[in-house]
Specification:
Blueprint: H1 2-13, E1 15-21, E2 33-40, E3 46-49, E4 63-67, E5 70-71, E6 89-92, E7 97-103, E8 114-123, H2 124-127, H3 132-135, E9 149-159, H4 165-180, E10 183-184, H5 189-215, H6 221-227, H7 232-242, E11 252-253
Parallel strand pairs: 10-11
Antiparallel strand pairs: 1-2, 2-7, 3-6, 4-5, 4-8, 8-9
Helix pairs in contact: 4-5, 5-7
Amino acid sequence: MAIAMMVLNVYAKNLEVTIVPAGSTSDTTQDVIVKLQYRNTGQKKINIVKWYLPGKELYDPLFKITCNNVPVEYLGPMIKRVKASAKDVIPLAPGKIISTVVALSSAYDMSKTCDYSIQYNMQSDLIIFSDDQTLETIPDEPIDNLESEIQSNNIQLPIKGRPNKQHNQNQIMTIHKRAATLNFVSCTDNNTIDLINAVSWALKYANESFNYLNNIISGTTRYRTWFGTYSSTNRNTGEKLFALKNTWHKKQWR
């Protein structure tokens, strides 16, 4: 096991990962996209597990992302897989490059407008495949220079918040669950159904309004229509009012 890890770590040192922006960061109707590039800087072939060279859609949390230094949640799918075999790899010859584009905002919660820090960050034993033949080709490398993680450059991007489909679906499910836990007193079945539907819609509107106010930093047409002249104090007051949605499920309905 120790020799196998040494092999992986040596090859990780020769696998250079680079990310660059590849789309608009201001058009909120588009995904935030980066180009992910693997380059073999060593003298021997590196076998990359193909699961970690994704298409546009992510199935693993390959990136470490923060929003104003706060970690951003990964919302994409998490695939449970069997151990990789030789048929699950993409060979990368010395000096060669392979790349793909990845839609980050489809898998990470980028609903807030802020300065995002983005970096590829994964364990080398997940990315690089080794078998018995690989163990015989370990380069002569000092132990101090071995790498257990593969990290890319870190890019900083000012990004306008945009909706995330999975995040929205999770919120809708939470709203329906909360509405269904209300306490009803002396209500007919039809009354109960009507109240659950009404509260679900009210929570949905309050949630959307809270998120909208949480993401603006200046007066917008929508803000001025509802609240008048913009100020951070007025915006914070509005946020607090819409945040009362978190206490509605404690009410009794008659």
